[in-house]
Design brief:
Strand content: 5-15%
Number of strands: 2
Order of helices and strands: EEH
Number of domains: 1
Structural class: alpha+beta
Helix content: 10-25%
Shape: globular
Strand order of the largest sheet: 1-2
Distance between the termini: 35 Å
Largest sheet: 2 strands, antiparallel
Length: 81
């Protein structure tokens, strides 16, 4: 689902792994790449979009996350008790 498979990866690299990356988005909004920093890690774990929910909970799920969630739908219980 990369926007441009010819682009080098990772899309961003955090220079200071002891803190959250503060650099601006080097690509356009909704660009799918490999942005450093996800799952509560500042480095070494990558998220697909710059503003993905994997970066901060106040962000919406990006297109890649939405696709994976929709693919999991058949495996989720139909009723939560």
């Amino acid at each position: 689902m990369l926007t441009n498979a010819a682009d080098g990866l990772p899309t961003t690299k955090n220079a200071n792994c002891s803190d959250c990356d503060t650099q601006p988005n080097p690509k356009f909004n909704n660009y799918v790449g490999a942005y450093d920093g996800a799952r509560y890690f500042h480095c070494g774990c990558f998220r697909p979009s710059f503003t993905c929910r994997m970066r901060a909970l106040n962000n919406p799920f990006c297109g890649v996350c939405q696709k994976v969630i929709s693919e999991l739908q058949p495996f989720l219980p139909t009723e939560i008790t």
